[in-house]
Amino acid sequence: MSSRTRSRTRTAKAPAGATTVRIPRQRSSQPFIVVVPDRPSLSREALGFLGRLLWKNRRSLAPLALAVLALPGTAVLHALAWWSGLLLAPLAAGPLAWLLITQRRRPAADRGVLGWRIGLTLLATTATAWVALAAAFGPLAGPLELLWLLTLLAAQTAWLIVRRTH
Q1: What is the maximum alpha-carbon separation in the chain?
Q2: How far is C-alpha 29 from the geometric centre of its chain's CA atoms?
Q3: Burial group, residue 66, by CB count within 10 angstroms (0-12, 13-18, 19+)
Q4: Which among 116, 149, 112, 110 has a CA at the least distance from the CA of 130?
Q5: Structure confidence by residue, pLDDT tens digits, 4-50
Q6: Is this structure's pTM higher than 0.85?
Q7: How confident is the model at residue 53 (pLDDT cuts 50, 70, 90)?
Q8: Residue 92 near residue 132 (C-beta atoms within 8 A)
Q9: Which residues contact 163 (CB under 8 A, 6 or more apart)?
Q10: How far apart, in Å, are the Cα atoms of 88 and each of 19, 25, 58, 77, 123?
């Protein structure tokens, strides 16, 4: 192999912050360079750990994800059509109708079952009322941000309790 056909790997530049390791050329193959990146920074390690932790527990954090998506969603809905809150307001009666139908078809024999049904009805009613009010007035208007936080905490707590017991 002549010097004209041989590749010029000795002039290859390594990226900044990378360590290069030169492996001697073998008889039958072309020379090559292995670029070994430096160790990641502490912030990169922390973000990677946090990302892996969130991914591992993603099912446990479903109410949190829904609440975080609902906040900008209702903000956009408020900006585009504030009157949509008037259309969403009747949906707040849906959980109460569910409770009445469920109690008529399958009455709760245990007080604990009735308590869970009433609690879920209150939570769902609060959430749907918040969506209607946030679409009408904006998600951060008045006490709506506190109501969002309290509803999020209640939903996340109930979700974790139900997931542990069943």
Answers
A1: 92
A2: 49
A3: middle
A4: 149
A5: 555 555 556 667 666 766 666 666 666 666 777 778 889 999 999 99
A6: no
A7: very high
A8: yes
A9: 59, 60
A10: 59, 72, 29, 11, 16
